[in-house]
């Protein structure tokens, strides 16, 4: 059993990573709970809900609530309905919420837990690779029609219980989406780790031991940053590598057309190219490009207007005074934050997309 | 200028109490804010909104949002609409929300601030006596149709700016409602303070200096308890004196029929009587009864079914395993928590209402 300890300003919790953990969830909890509400989505429900229910045995009252799969479920309506479920199922301040699913479920169920009776315990049970990122760090939120994650809290879970076996069933694009964040954790922290990932074909050989190793390393990078900077001062912003363009692409192409990680992958390529130009350094642009290509990341986009992208990039929660801030690299493991002029950015975007098309 | 310092687990903030403070709000803030959203209700809007807007001068962007006066405005719909206002007015993580009004506005605007972009700064500007209680302690919430304050956070403000002059315009029942919590703060902490309040006719002589003294003392009692026990362990429960029956009466008679404080006043009388019987001590039941009577608190209720009240008391957020827990007193300043049997409680309720009717 591998476990990592994560310190926050309000608690310490553990992340457990191994196979078959969903069958023994209560053994990872430090308290006994007499009343548990499992929140999951319509996709994960069919695969793993029964396992998690049974893990609690017969002495615990276990109820569940299912929301439709997909990012649009992070709505105020579902949030309110889940509150109603919690009340109807008699949850009190000593009860537990289980977030069983990917990042969407983790964000939504975590925000319900954060605000039900001013905050009750919850545990993250991620079922995607991407959620190795979102399940650690305590960010929980729902969406507003005007923007993603605009309504939320910082609220750490009691534990993250990561059953690697549940990742077996992921479709390829979800594997790609999750691995992009693993690559990001390599780029901002550790060249050796980045190179290890670059040697791996992530589609053909699903090896739970390698995946487990990558997940643990990715989580530990994230955890280190979050421990240093829980509430998003400067250092936590490094986690945003690839996300400024990534979010803009996601929004512009339409959520669902390209996965979060696939968009971030393009954003990281862009950040590498901009970094090389701004700092006059050499970075593994080609290595990353080839790896993305080999693993079928979408690299050739239909024409995207660069002025429209620029405006999207300005809407980022992290932008100030309407200038775009990007995370760049002076070397692998040496992140920086740069504010970029509009003209400069347009030039960079033009180069980037021209070279991609050639590539 | 009188000010109190309040320490929480995440920050330190000040409570300022004096006349005319609404005209110089920015001078009590430790930061400059370029974008401010004032949230108020339809009643307070007419009286004080302009003063607060003008206090920010012309260099700050100030917008406002108004909800209907009354507890029913603490709804998920208003919460969501206020989020939309915040977005439309361009608030970012460095903006400020001003909660201008009584406890309802403080709870609602505070919860918006707590969850907008995972939490931005806010300042409480209370305009009722009752809000001396709710504006300190960091509890923010909205209501669910199934119960009050079921959705919320612990989220302290950056400051509480209490302009005593705004209390001039309060109707008598609001003065009674607020003073009940001041009396409570006396009962749970300080006999001399309790006696001072009992000497005061709160309706005929509105003296801002005496009121200011009482508010500061009440806030300091609350602040001491909240500093010791931010997240409602045992000690914070003492603040619940009079509230177990109080909440049941409010809910049973219908919100708006009796004010919160008026219901709590009856609850405190009940707690004094129960305490005398359980502990065999003598407490100032008659003193409090006479003071309440002199100040026109509603003491003679139309018939209330005691079994219905008992069931309401069991629904309290603080009840466990369906037994009623009450805050009692062994002496003034010596609070305790007792779990009471249903039969015993019914007997106590019967006695209490019989004596009230005689009184």
From TrEMBL, chains A, B:
Pathway of action: Metabolic intermediate biosynthesis; chorismate biosynthesis; chorismate from D-erythrose 4-phosphate and phosphoenolpyruvate: step 2/7
Entry keyword Amino-acid biosynthesis: yes
Main location: cytoplasm
Positions that bind Zn(2+): 181, 243, 260
SUPFAM superfamilies named among the record's database cross-references: Dehydroquinate synthase-like (SSF56796)
Binding site for NAD(+): 127-128, 139, 148
Pfam family, one: DHQ_synthase
Highest taxon in the source lineage: Bacteria
Catalysed reactions, as listed in the record: 7-phospho-2-dehydro-3-deoxy-D-arabino-heptonate = 3-dehydroquinate + phosphate
Cofactor(s) demanded: Co(2+); Zn(2+); NAD(+)
Ranges where the 3-dehydroquinate synthase C-terminal domain occurs: 178-319
GO molecular function: 3-dehydroquinate synthase activity
Record's keyword annotation contains Zinc: yes
InterPro entries per record: Dehydroquinate_synthase, DHQ_synth_AroB, DHQ_synth_fam, DHQS/DOIS_N, DHQS_C
EC number: 4.2.3.4
All copies of domain 3-dehydroquinate synthase N-terminal, residue ranges: 66-176
UniProt similarity note: Belongs to the sugar phosphate cyclases superfamily. Dehydroquinate synthase family.
PANTHER family attached to this UniProt entry: 3-DEHYDROQUINATE SYNTHASE, 3-DEHYDROQUINATE SYNTHASE, CHLOROPLASTIC
Annotated HAMAP family: DHQ_synthase
Described purpose of this protein according to its UniProt entry: Catalyzes the conversion of 3-deoxy-D-arabino-heptulosonate 7-phosphate (DAHP) to dehydroquinate (DHQ).
Full protein name: 3-dehydroquinate synthase
Native source species: Aquibacillus albus
